[in-house]
Protein: ThuA-like domain-containing protein
Amino acid sequence: MNALIVSGGWPGHKPLEFAEVLGSLLQSAGFSVNQARSLDVLDEPLDAYTLIVPNWTMGKLTGTQSANLRAAVRGGVGLAGIHGGAGDAFREDTDYQFMVGGQFVAHPGNVRPYRVNVVAHELTAGLSDFDVVSEQYYMHVDPSNTVLATTTFDGTDAPWVEGTVMPVAWTRRYGEGRVFYQSVGHTPSDLDGAAGELTRRGLLWAANVSQEVLS
Structure:
């Protein structure tokens, strides 16, 4: 099992620090991890990887890079990521957004306390609702996603969305590939506890090692 983590973009999301956290989760599950610091790695075919983890807030893919990434996932390579590193990446690339299943549009109030409600699913077995202090992502989300967790906006900073239930984590298919995303993760400490465990399970699910997800 080999994974590619592509890290960079807006430095406020601490891509290099998150690369270490995500890499550690994968290495502990037996993955060989290639840590890339440039999008140039996407210029070549990617079908030799088991899993690709975009960890690149904003930025821009070339047409070749976008096509190679999407072709790999359509062909069966897993894709998994968190927060802005995957859900606010490559804003101009709607084909990328279609693959991920959602796109960040706002985080009213910036960093704030909120609750994550876990949806019953084999990937969330044994996990309970949990509280975080992070950016509560408001996203445009594909209705075909399988939702694993949600959050409800209280309207404090954007009264017009009070009561809106927003997906926090989901899985989906893109061709033959498995895709996992979850929006918690503004700072590495956000992945302590339940958010980190959900991320670990999602990474492994996307890589199609489901027999290990709950171990």
